[in-house]
Amino acid sequence: MPIARLTDAERGDALKSLPGWSLRADGLAIVRELKFADFGEAFGFMTRVAIQAEKVDHHPEWFNVYNKVRITLTTHDAEGLSLRDVALAKFIDGVV
Ligand code: HBI
């Protein structure tokens, strides 16, 4: 079943509920940069998110260096943002 891309209005509303996230310049993704105490904390966080990503079959695009993790969420199948990105962002906000 195709995944619906959020409308601009839905996207705006979603961002209001995701204060730690920013809209990427092209409007097709949300991004957040996180800083942890050390690499172990950062990687432990990534492990928790990875397990959730597998569970919901929706995966982040992310970059990690030492204690920093930069996360980008977008829905390839929708060629933009979908409710799956919002849900995963809310999960992430709950485990940081
Ligand atoms: N993760 N972020 C993201 N976006 C997708 O479209 C996506 C995914 N993980 C798995 C997935 N799609 C597959 O279910 C589809 O490509 C079939």
N/C terminus separation: 31 Å
Total discrete domains: 1
Q: How many distinct beta strands? A: 4
What is the CATH superfamily label?
Transcriptional coactivator/pterin dehydratase
Shape: globular
What is the top-level CATH class?
Answer: Alpha Beta
How much helicity do the residues have?
Answer: 40-55%
Catalytic activity: (4aS,6R)-4a-hydroxy-L-erythro-5,6,7,8-tetrahydrobiopterin = (6R)-L-erythro-6,7-dihydrobiopterin + H2O
GO biological process, one term: tetrahydrobiopterin biosynthetic process
Pfam families: Pterin_4a (PF01329)
Enzyme class: lyase
Output the keywords.
3 helices; 4 strands; globular; Pterin_deHydtase; 4-alpha-hydroxytetrahydrobiopterin dehydratase activity; Putative pterin-4-alpha-carbinolamine dehydratase; 4-stranded antiparallel beta sheet; Gyrase A, domain 2; 96 residues; PCD_sf
Task: Briefly say what this structure is.
Helix content is 42%, strand content 20%. By secondary structure, it is α+β, with helices and mostly antiparallel strands.
How would you describe this protein?
The protein is α+β, with helices and mostly antiparallel strands. It has a single domain (8-94), classed as Transcriptional coactivator/pterin dehydratase (Gyrase A, domain 2, 2-Layer Sandwich). It is 42% helix and 20% strand. The protein has 3 helices and 4 strands. It has helices spanning 8-16, 39-56, 83-95; strands spanning 22-23, 30-35, 61-65, 68-73. A 4-stranded antiparallel beta sheet has the order 1-2-4-3, with helices on one face. The longest helix has 18 residues, at 39-56. It is globular and about 40 Å long. The termini are far apart. The structure holds 7,8-dihydrobiopterin.
